[in-house]
């Protein structure tokens, strides 16, 4: 994240979950081409409106009610991830663990955490989606991505808050509800914040390999202000000079 987002996280003591369709991958929440083909076969005899319009619109509605917080899993820093997601020389990388992420969440929202599985979206139906193209739940498309994103090695926390879910359980959404649903972006919240215990979450703070020393010094001061252990702040080792 950039420096301002880091300070915002400290100030709000929360993690931000942008809406799924706000992320850069337009395939978020979509089905594979193979699955869509099977779906058409399995629904033969249904009205074309249901197959061609309502089901695709239903999937887009799901993206409007799904919020994602994404992490890169690795034993060390990734030069590629710094280059891909850093827009300036003042970037910050937060280090944590799966267990610490889970334990740090201090919020009543239902949150599902999963590793992403990477598959060929042209020729594969993911395991558990059924040979006929049906899926047993609506969250599964958000736990899979195309193999072109495999370099991300992603772990994501997911809020999947569909309007037809309630404390009484899940009900089927009707065709009329799908028809009347507004897909205009302004009709939906752009993201959600989730309260976290930052002292539990943060196990390290890595400063961009391109940043000057004063950025690290500033981060130390900011961490002290927000009662985060300043010893957690370290310059990225990717920028170190080689030995010959």
In short:
It is built from 8 helices and 12 strands. With 244 residues, the chain is α+β, with helices and mostly antiparallel strands.
Describe the structure.
This is DUF2971 domain-containing protein. It comes from Halobaculum lipolyticum. The protein is of the alpha+beta class. The chain has one domain (3-238). It is 30% helix and 20% strand. The chain has eight helices and twelve strands. The protein has a three-stranded antiparallel beta sheet with strand order 2-7-4. It has a three-stranded mixed beta sheet with strand order 3-11-12, covered by helices on one side. Strands 1-10 form a two-stranded antiparallel sheet. It is elongated and about 70 Å long. The mean pLDDT is 87.
How does the helix and strand content classify structurally? alpha+beta
Q: Uncertain segments of ≥5 residues (pLDDT<50)? A: none
Helix and strand run:
HEHHEHEHEEEEEEHEHEHE
Spatial strand order of the main sheet: 2-7-4
Number of strands: 12
Give the domain tally.
1
In this structure, how is the largest beta sheet organized?
Answer: 3 strands, antiparallel
Described by the principal axes of the CA atoms, the overall outline is elongated
**Multimer state:** single chain
């Amino acid at each position: 994240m950039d420096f301002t987002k880091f300070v915002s996280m400290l100030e709000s003591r929360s993690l931000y979950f942008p809406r799924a369709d706000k992320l850069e991958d337009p395939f978020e929440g979509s089905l594979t081409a193979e699955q869509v083909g099977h779906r058409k076969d399995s629904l033969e005899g249904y009205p074309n409106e249901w197959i061609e319009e309502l089901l695709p619109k239903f999937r887009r509605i799901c993206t409007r009610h799904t919020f994602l917080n994404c992490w890169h899993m690795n034993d060390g820093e990734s030069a590629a991830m710094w280059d891909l997601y850093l827009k300036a020389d003042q970037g910050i990388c937060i280090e944590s663990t799966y267990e610490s992420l889970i334990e740090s969440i201090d919020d009543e929202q239902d949150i599902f955490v999963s590793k992403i599985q990477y598959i060929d979206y042209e020729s594969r139906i993911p395991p558990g989606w059924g040979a006929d193209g049906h899926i047993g739940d609506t969250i599964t498309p958000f736990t899979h991505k195309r193999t072109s994103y495999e370099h991300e090695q992603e772990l994501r926390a997911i809020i999947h808050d569909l309007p037809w879910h309630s404390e009484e359980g899940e009900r089927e959404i009707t065709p009329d509800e799908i028809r009347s649903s507004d897909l205009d972006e302004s009709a939906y919240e752009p993201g959600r914040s989730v309260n976290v215990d930052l002292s539990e979450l943060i196990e390290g703070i890595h400063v961009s390999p391109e940043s000057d020393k004063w950025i690290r010094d500033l981060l130390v001061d900011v961490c002290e202000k927000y009662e985060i252990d300043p010893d957690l702040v370290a310059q990225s080792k990717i920028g170190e000079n080689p030995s010959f």
